[in-house]
Design brief:
Chain A: Keywords: Cell membrane, Membrane, Transmembrane, Transmembrane helix, Transport. By secondary structure, chain A is an all-alpha fold. Chain A has twelve helices and no strands. Classes of the chains: A mainly alpha, B mainly alpha. Chains A and B meet through helix 1, helix 3, helix 4, helix 5 and helix 7 of A and helix 1, helix 4, helix 5, helix 6 and helix 10 of B.
């Protein structure tokens, strides 16, 4: 009897411990997940309501030219950011790792600081640096293109420039992960191989790279997910323009829901974005793991 | 041979610092701009080095914009979010890690699974929900959807799993409850990880843009990242003021980072699972 009562009390205590989280989670996470699915089959406005319209939103989406433009731009942005930022971060991590003590802390701070800035601070600073008339970087652009360029109003420059700003802003995170990965590699491997006469390049190819690969794969996967969720920077820098050349899926969600008052249609796009992110990241992770094993 | 190696090392170190200086240039440039007068900023003579020390832009930023409101909103909501996320997270993680109850596995599965759902895809139903609850343009509306941070539970669970069983037995013999156990034993043993998770949660809610941007409708209710986007409209083309507001908005977290650099670095590594 006592044991059963004890067990019951134990369970009650456990449930009281999980209750606050479970309650909040159900209200602001689980319920919205169910809702976003339901809404995607309705013609609800932003305030809700609406009637069941079956697959109409999805049919509309498949014939929406902007959807394909956005999809293409999302893909382009992923190409411009994921691998480049990982490569740059790896280079920086290798450079920073050589240093020690205060010098390392200083170098790390220089590369990491942008990561903790609010996105609007980042975009304000870069918009000013790339300002068409007075931007401090315009002479650099002139060297490349021969003339000053209003980069966020130019269909060819806008995506690469948003990518550049994004890499500058978020790269510190990748540097940290790779640095942690480098620190986990046992130091005696390098000492032993040095005794055997291995040079730096050989050490990198035979020790660093294979042992760091799981972390590189993690960084690539996290980056892919992060960059598919592009919204803040592109909204603040170019609002998807010019001529939709930087229009992306989450901008579509925003505009449909909050400017055109099409809650149902926006929900359908949201779900497609969600499925896209899950599929692509699972696929990429599996692929990278297979490559890693070889 | 040795001399050559030493030169090589010095060159690499110099290269690293130069690269770091270039990387931080945008912040340097924002600062140089912010201490110039507006006329100087757009004049031909404005060089790369600071040549004026004029704080009028900062004065304007503090007294002629809603920056102070934004600070209060950002600090208030971020602190509340951090406190609730940590408290509910550690309670839930303790139950999952140390207790036996039907649904335990399912709960942890749901927590792990929710990690996969990007918050951005839920903004439409979340907005409708906040509207139904009357929380649009309120602190409650900013806070509620930011309270689900699965990684806090995942990290706490890992650390609670690693606490030696003997610790627990001593408290059980004294007749202590699980609440005593959590707050008197497990929490004090894990202050380090608690600080780390608090830092991560605080920074990410301080910097949150999309959700506060959607749920706030008036300027005096905005958080810093959202408010900064209004400065353009308010000041027109005034780069010194723009940069001073941006730097003031970034300052609290940036300064905190520079002071607690090691802790922040650790926190980022732990919460991404690279170093436990």
């Amino acid at each position: 009897m006592a044991m059963i009562r004890n067990q019951r009390r134990h369970r009650l205590v456990a449930y009281s411990l999980i209750l606050p989280f479970v309650a909040i989670f159900s209200l602001v996470f689980a319920y919205p997940i169910v809702e976003v699915i339901r809404l995607s089959f309705t013609n609800a406005t932003l305030i809700g309501g609406g009637e069941w319209v079956g697959l109409q939103n999805y049919r509309e989406l498949l014939s929406d030219k902007l959807f394909y433009t956005s999809l293409k731009n999302n893909g382009y942005f992923v190409l411009l950011t994921v691998v480049p930022t990982t490569a740059i971060a790896l280079g920086i991590a290798l450079m920073v790792q050589r240093l020690s003590g205060r010098l390392q802390a200083l170098a790390l701070a220089l590369f990491f600081l942008p990561y903790i800035l609010p996105v609007s601070v980042v975009t304000q600073i870069w918009a000013w640096m790339l300002d068409f008339q007075f931007g401090v970087l315009q002479p650099v652009l002139e060297l490349i293109a021969g003339k000053p360029i209003p980069v966020f109003k130019n269909p060819h420059w806008v995506m690469p420039m948003v990518a550049l700003v994004t890499i500058w802003w978020t790269n510190g995170f990748n540097v940290l992960l790779l640095l942690a990965g480098l620190r986990n590699i046992p130091q005696d491997l390098y000492e032993a191989s040095a005794l055997d006469g291995a040079n730096r390049r050989q050490q990198f190819a035979r020790i660093t790279w294979p042992l760091l690969w799981p972390v590189v794969a993690l960084v690539l996967t996290l980056q892919l997910i992060l960059q598919l969720k592009l919204f803040d920077q592109v909204y603040l820098l170019s609002e998807g323009g010019p001529f939709n050349s930087s229009y992306v899926l989450l901008l579509m969600v925003y505009r449909e829901a909050f400017q055109q008052n099409n809650g149902g249609y926006a929900a359908a796009i949201s779900l497609v974005v969600f499925l896209l992110i899950v599929t692509v990241s699972v696929l990429q992770y599996q692929l990278l793991r297979i490559r890693g094993r070889k | 041979m040795i001399a050559q190696k030493r030169i090589e090392n010095a060159a690499l170190t110099a290269l690293t610092l130069v690269a770091g200086a270039i990387w931080i240039f945008p912040l340097y440039w924002a600062f140089v701009t912010s201490i110039r007068t507006e006329n100087r900023v757009v004049s031909d003579q404005a060089g790369l080095l600071p040549d004026e020390f004029n704080l009028s832009a900062y004065h304007d930023a503090l007294f002629n914009s809603s920056l102070v409101h934004w600070y209060v909103n950002s600090i208030g909501t971020s602190l509340i979010i951090t406190a609730i996320v940590l408290l509910t997270g550690m309670m839930c993680a303790y139950a999952i890690s140390q207790m036996n109850f039907p649904g335990r596995r399912l709960l942890y599965g749901v927590v792990l699974g929710s990690f996969m759902v990007p918050a951005q895809v839920l903004v439409v139903p979340q907005f409708m929900l906040m509207n139904d609850l009357g929380l649009i343009n309120k602190w409650g509306g900013i806070i509620l959807p930011q309270l689900v941070v699965p990684v806090v539970i995942i990290v706490y669970k890992q650390f609670f799993d690693a606490v030696p069983k003997e610790m627990k037995e001593a408290v059980v013999l004294d007749g202590g409850s699980d609440y005593t156990m959590l707050f008197k034993v497990y929490l004090p043993l894990n202050w380090g990880i608690t600080t780390a998770l608090a830092i991560i949660t605080f920074i990410s809610s301080w910097n949150a843009f999309l959700w506060p941007f959607l749920v706030i409708t008036t300027e005096d209710m905005m958080t810093i990242p959202v408010g900064l986007t209004q400065v353009n409209d308010a000041f027109g083309v005034a780069y010194a003021r723009l940069m001073s507001v941006a730097l003031l908005g970034a300052a609290p977290v940036a300064i905190a980072y520079l002071i607690f650099q090691k802790r922040v670095t650790e926190a980022v590594m732990i919460s991404s699972g690279v170093k436990g």
